[in-house]
Amino acid sequence: MRILISNDDGYLAPGINALAEALAPIADIVVVAPDSNRSGASNSLSLDRPLSVQRAANGFYFVNGTPTDCVHVALTGMLDYKPDLVVSGINNGPNMGDDTLYSGTVAAATEGYLFGIPAIAFSQGAHGWEHIEDAARHARDIIQRYYETLPAPYLLNVNIPNRPYDQLTAPVATRLGRRHQAEPVIRAQDPRGKEIFWIGPPGATKDAGEGTDFFACAQGRTSITPLQIDLTHKTQLDALAKALA
Ligand code: MN
Q1: How far is Cα of residue 45 from the mean position of the Cα atoms in its chain?
Q2: What confidence tens digit (pLDDT) does each residue in 138-178 have?
Q3: How far does residue 209's CA lie from ligand 1's centre (Å)?
Protein backbone atom coordinates (compact mmCIF):
# COMPACT_ATOMS: atom_id res chain seq x y z
CA MET A 1 0.00 0.00 0.00
CA ARG A 2 1.21 3.50 -0.85
CA ILE A 3 0.16 6.28 1.52
CA LEU A 4 0.50 10.04 1.07
CA ILE A 5 0.72 11.81 4.43
CA SER A 6 0.11 15.51 5.05
CA ASN A 7 -1.10 17.76 7.86
CA ASP A 8 -1.75 21.40 8.72
CA ASP A 9 0.57 21.77 11.73
CA GLY A 10 3.65 21.69 9.51
CA TYR A 11 6.23 19.03 8.63
CA LEU A 12 8.06 19.41 11.96
CA ALA A 13 4.99 18.72 14.10
CA PRO A 14 5.10 15.75 16.49
CA GLY A 15 1.76 14.50 15.11
CA ILE A 16 2.96 13.94 11.54
CA ASN A 17 6.24 12.45 12.75
CA ALA A 18 4.40 9.95 14.95
CA LEU A 19 1.98 9.09 12.14
CA ALA A 20 4.76 8.56 9.60
CA GLU A 21 6.69 6.36 12.03
CA ALA A 22 3.62 4.26 12.75
CA LEU A 23 2.71 3.81 9.08
CA ALA A 24 6.20 3.22 7.63
CA PRO A 25 6.25 -0.48 8.65
CA ILE A 26 2.96 -1.24 6.87
CA ALA A 27 3.16 0.94 3.73
CA ASP A 28 5.33 2.89 1.33
CA ILE A 29 4.87 6.38 2.70
CA VAL A 30 5.61 9.82 1.35
CA VAL A 31 5.19 12.91 3.51
CA VAL A 32 4.33 16.24 1.85
CA ALA A 33 3.39 18.89 4.40
CA PRO A 34 3.38 22.66 4.90
CA ASP A 35 6.64 24.32 5.93
CA SER A 36 4.87 26.04 8.84
CA ASN A 37 1.73 25.79 10.92
CA ARG A 38 -1.25 26.36 8.60
CA SER A 39 -4.02 25.35 11.00
CA GLY A 40 -7.33 26.92 9.95
CA ALA A 41 -6.28 27.09 6.30
CA SER A 42 -9.35 25.13 5.23
CA ASN A 43 -9.35 24.16 1.52
CA SER A 44 -7.35 27.15 0.31
CA LEU A 45 -5.09 26.92 -2.73
CA SER A 46 -2.24 29.40 -3.26
CA LEU A 47 -2.90 30.96 -6.65
CA ASP A 48 -0.99 34.21 -6.18
CA ARG A 49 2.54 32.79 -6.12
CA PRO A 50 4.56 29.73 -7.11
CA LEU A 51 5.13 26.84 -4.73
CA SER A 52 8.42 25.14 -4.00
CA VAL A 53 8.96 21.64 -2.67
CA GLN A 54 12.01 20.91 -0.55
CA ARG A 55 13.24 17.68 1.00
CA ALA A 56 14.17 17.58 4.68
CA ALA A 57 16.96 15.44 6.13
CA ASN A 58 14.44 12.84 7.31
CA GLY A 59 12.97 12.48 3.81
CA PHE A 60 9.83 14.53 4.44
CA TYR A 61 8.92 17.02 1.71
CA PHE A 62 7.83 20.49 2.79
CA VAL A 63 6.02 23.12 0.77
CA ASN A 64 5.64 26.88 1.23
CA GLY A 65 1.89 26.50 0.97
CA THR A 66 -1.32 25.25 2.52
CA PRO A 67 -2.29 21.66 3.33
CA THR A 68 -4.42 21.60 0.19
CA ASP A 69 -1.46 22.90 -1.87
CA CYS A 70 0.67 20.05 -0.55
CA VAL A 71 -1.73 17.27 -1.51
CA HIS A 72 -2.62 18.98 -4.78
CA VAL A 73 1.02 19.34 -5.85
CA ALA A 74 1.80 15.78 -4.78
CA LEU A 75 -1.10 14.32 -6.74
CA THR A 76 -0.89 16.47 -9.85
CA GLY A 77 2.82 16.65 -10.54
CA MET A 78 5.18 15.52 -7.87
CA LEU A 79 4.34 11.83 -7.54
CA ASP A 80 4.49 9.53 -10.55
CA TYR A 81 1.84 7.23 -9.06
CA LYS A 82 -1.59 7.52 -7.46
CA PRO A 83 -1.48 6.74 -3.74
CA ASP A 84 -3.88 4.14 -2.36
CA LEU A 85 -4.69 6.32 0.63
CA VAL A 86 -4.23 9.92 1.75
CA VAL A 87 -3.97 10.52 5.49
CA SER A 88 -3.69 13.82 7.32
CA GLY A 89 -2.57 14.63 10.84
CA ILE A 90 -2.34 13.77 13.51
CA ASN A 91 -3.64 17.22 14.37
CA ASN A 92 -2.76 19.03 17.59
CA GLY A 93 -6.29 19.19 19.04
CA PRO A 94 -9.80 18.28 18.00
CA ASN A 95 -11.53 18.76 14.66
CA MET A 96 -15.18 18.15 15.47
CA GLY A 97 -18.46 19.64 14.39
CA ASP A 98 -18.03 23.02 12.69
CA ASP A 99 -14.23 22.76 13.06
CA THR A 100 -14.22 20.54 9.99
CA LEU A 101 -15.07 23.54 7.77
CA TYR A 102 -12.03 25.53 8.92
CA SER A 103 -9.61 22.66 9.43
CA GLY A 104 -6.53 22.32 7.26
CA THR A 105 -6.19 18.76 8.55
CA VAL A 106 -9.56 17.81 7.13
CA ALA A 107 -8.82 19.84 3.98
CA ALA A 108 -5.66 17.86 3.19
CA ALA A 109 -7.67 14.65 3.32
CA THR A 110 -10.48 16.25 1.35
CA GLU A 111 -8.08 17.07 -1.48
CA GLY A 112 -7.19 13.39 -1.76
CA TYR A 113 -10.87 12.47 -1.70
CA LEU A 114 -11.60 14.95 -4.51
CA PHE A 115 -9.05 13.07 -6.60
CA GLY A 116 -10.93 9.83 -5.99
CA ILE A 117 -8.63 8.47 -3.31
CA PRO A 118 -9.80 7.15 0.08
CA ALA A 119 -8.76 9.69 2.68
CA ILE A 120 -8.66 9.92 6.46
CA ALA A 121 -8.08 12.96 8.68
CA PHE A 122 -6.77 12.21 12.17
CA SER A 123 -6.88 14.58 15.15
CA GLN A 124 -6.28 14.23 18.86
CA GLY A 125 -9.17 15.11 21.16
CA ALA A 126 -7.10 17.63 23.12
CA HIS A 127 -4.18 19.95 22.39
CA GLY A 128 -0.68 19.30 23.70
CA TRP A 129 0.42 16.03 22.04
CA GLU A 130 -0.12 13.90 25.14
CA HIS A 131 0.01 10.21 24.09
CA ILE A 132 0.67 11.13 20.44
CA GLU A 133 2.56 7.89 19.77
CA ASP A 134 -0.35 5.90 21.19
CA ALA A 135 -2.70 7.84 18.91
CA ALA A 136 -0.49 7.08 15.89
CA ARG A 137 -0.48 3.36 16.67
CA HIS A 138 -4.26 3.50 17.05
CA ALA A 139 -4.52 5.32 13.70
CA ARG A 140 -2.51 2.53 12.08
CA ASP A 141 -4.92 -0.02 13.59
CA ILE A 142 -7.87 1.89 12.11
CA ILE A 143 -6.26 1.96 8.66
CA GLN A 144 -5.38 -1.73 8.77
CA ARG A 145 -8.81 -2.75 10.00
CA TYR A 146 -11.09 -0.54 7.90
CA TYR A 147 -9.09 0.53 4.83
CA GLU A 148 -10.69 -2.04 2.54
CA THR A 149 -14.04 -2.52 4.25
CA LEU A 150 -15.69 0.75 3.21
CA PRO A 151 -16.79 1.53 -0.35
CA ALA A 152 -14.08 3.76 -1.84
CA PRO A 153 -13.54 6.57 -2.11
CA TYR A 154 -14.44 7.73 1.37
CA LEU A 155 -13.52 10.71 3.50
CA LEU A 156 -13.30 9.95 7.21
CA ASN A 157 -12.81 12.41 10.04
CA VAL A 158 -11.25 10.68 13.04
CA ASN A 159 -10.77 12.15 16.53
CA ILE A 160 -8.72 10.11 18.98
CA PRO A 161 -8.81 10.76 22.75
CA ASN A 162 -5.46 11.56 24.40
CA ARG A 163 -5.09 8.22 26.15
CA PRO A 164 -2.54 5.43 26.48
CA TYR A 165 -2.81 2.83 23.70
CA ASP A 166 -4.34 0.14 25.91
CA GLN A 167 -7.15 2.54 26.84
CA LEU A 168 -8.04 3.32 23.22
CA THR A 169 -11.05 1.18 22.38
CA ALA A 170 -12.90 0.34 19.17
CA PRO A 171 -14.04 3.47 17.32
CA VAL A 172 -17.66 4.56 17.13
CA ALA A 173 -19.43 5.91 14.02
CA THR A 174 -20.67 9.44 14.59
CA ARG A 175 -22.22 12.47 12.94
CA LEU A 176 -20.76 15.93 13.27
CA GLY A 177 -21.96 17.93 16.26
CA ARG A 178 -22.40 21.68 16.19
CA ARG A 179 -20.75 24.55 18.01
CA HIS A 180 -22.16 27.88 19.16
CA GLN A 181 -20.81 30.85 17.22
CA ALA A 182 -17.14 31.58 17.81
CA GLU A 183 -15.91 33.70 20.70
CA PRO A 184 -15.20 37.39 19.95
CA VAL A 185 -11.88 38.50 18.48
CA ILE A 186 -9.17 39.51 20.94
CA ARG A 187 -8.30 43.18 20.56
CA ALA A 188 -4.76 44.37 21.17
CA GLN A 189 -2.33 47.07 20.06
CA ASP A 190 0.74 46.53 17.93
CA PRO A 191 4.04 48.12 19.09
CA ARG A 192 3.18 51.28 17.13
CA GLY A 193 -0.15 51.66 18.89
CA LYS A 194 -2.30 50.48 16.01
CA GLU A 195 -5.31 48.35 16.91
CA ILE A 196 -4.98 44.70 15.91
CA PHE A 197 -7.23 41.68 16.19
CA TRP A 198 -6.50 38.05 16.99
CA ILE A 199 -9.14 35.52 15.92
CA GLY A 200 -10.72 34.20 19.12
CA PRO A 201 -11.40 30.63 20.20
CA PRO A 202 -14.12 28.46 18.64
CA GLY A 203 -17.54 28.43 20.25
CA ALA A 204 -18.58 26.01 22.96
CA THR A 205 -20.45 22.91 21.92
CA LYS A 206 -24.13 23.41 21.06
CA ASP A 207 -25.11 20.00 19.75
CA ALA A 208 -22.95 17.48 21.58
CA GLY A 209 -25.66 14.89 22.14
CA GLU A 210 -25.50 11.16 21.75
CA GLY A 211 -24.39 10.14 18.26
CA THR A 212 -22.12 13.15 17.75
CA ASP A 213 -18.36 13.29 17.53
CA PHE A 214 -18.29 15.52 20.61
CA PHE A 215 -20.26 12.97 22.61
CA ALA A 216 -18.06 10.04 21.60
CA CYS A 217 -14.85 11.86 22.54
CA ALA A 218 -16.33 13.04 25.83
CA GLN A 219 -16.96 9.35 26.57
CA GLY A 220 -13.31 8.56 25.82
CA ARG A 221 -14.17 6.85 22.53
CA THR A 222 -12.50 7.34 19.17
CA SER A 223 -14.96 9.07 16.82
CA ILE A 224 -15.16 8.40 13.09
CA THR A 225 -17.45 10.59 10.97
CA PRO A 226 -17.88 9.90 7.26
CA LEU A 227 -17.89 13.24 5.43
CA GLN A 228 -19.27 14.38 2.07
CA ILE A 229 -18.49 17.47 0.05
CA ASP A 230 -21.80 18.37 -1.62
CA LEU A 231 -23.02 21.46 0.29
CA THR A 232 -26.37 21.60 -1.51
CA HIS A 233 -29.25 22.12 0.92
CA LYS A 234 -31.49 19.52 -0.69
CA THR A 235 -34.72 20.39 1.12
CA GLN A 236 -34.35 24.10 0.41
CA LEU A 237 -33.61 23.32 -3.23
CA ASP A 238 -37.23 22.30 -3.82
CA ALA A 239 -38.55 25.36 -2.02
CA LEU A 240 -36.22 27.60 -4.00
CA ALA A 241 -37.19 26.01 -7.29
CA LYS A 242 -40.86 26.62 -6.48
CA ALA A 243 -40.17 30.22 -5.46
CA LEU A 244 -38.29 30.88 -8.68
CA ALA A 245 -40.83 29.15 -10.94
MN1 MN B 1 -3.61 22.03 13.16
Answers
A1: 16
A2: 999 999 999 999 888 999 999 999 999 999 999 999 999 99
A3: 25
